[in-house]
Q: What sequence folds into this?
């Protein structure tokens, strides 16, 4: 009887351990997405309109080296443009000059096109917003907490736009 007891106990513990913990399932990866360009452009237009700026879409601008491209949004009557860079834009625009050292925003001094009625080319400032820096977790499950939500990305884009406009108004318009 003594020898049977340890074997029975071992069998009981083994069977019990098979049932513990339930089925093991692997958590699916979170779907990480960049803020879509159409939503980013809506936010850009909303922020500009809230500040009283009129704008045009797909306006021609040029880098200092005269290489041109169409910016997503250019503010009318001001030398300000905004480009939301998608992977496609990065390929088509090509190399973009680096921002000023230590700058949180990617603002580039450039030239605007076309010339104003006096024939002068006004200096322009282009804010480049890299879509790869505006990613969020799309549809996290109740078991998964999203590190970055859509609302956080939306708010960060609005803040960056407000900072750019404030910089332009205090540094450029007031000069």
A:
């Amino acid at each position: 009887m003594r020898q049977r007891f340890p074997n029975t106990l071992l069998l009981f513990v083994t069977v019990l351990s098979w049932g513990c913990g339930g089925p093991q399932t692997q958590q699916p990866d979170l779907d990480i997405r960049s803020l879509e360009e159409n939503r980013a452009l809506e936010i850009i237009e909303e922020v500009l309109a809230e500040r009283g700026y009129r704008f045009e879409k797909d306006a021609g601008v040029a880098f200092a080296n005269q290489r041109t491209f169409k910016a997503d949004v250019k503010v009318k009557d001001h030398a300000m443009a905004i480009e939301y860079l998608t992977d496609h834009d990065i390929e088509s625009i090509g190399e973009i000059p680096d921002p000023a050292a230590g700058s949180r925003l990617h603002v580039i001094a450039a030239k605007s096109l076309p010339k104003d009625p006096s024939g002068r080319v006004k200096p322009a400032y282009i804010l480049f917003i890299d879509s790869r820096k505006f990613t969020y977790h799309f549809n996290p499950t109740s078991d998964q907490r999203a590190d970055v939500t859509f609302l956080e990305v939306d708010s960060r884009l609005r803040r960056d736009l407000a900072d750019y406009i404030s910089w332009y108004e205090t540094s450029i318009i007031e000069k």
Helices lie at 4-19, 37-50, 87-93, 150-173.
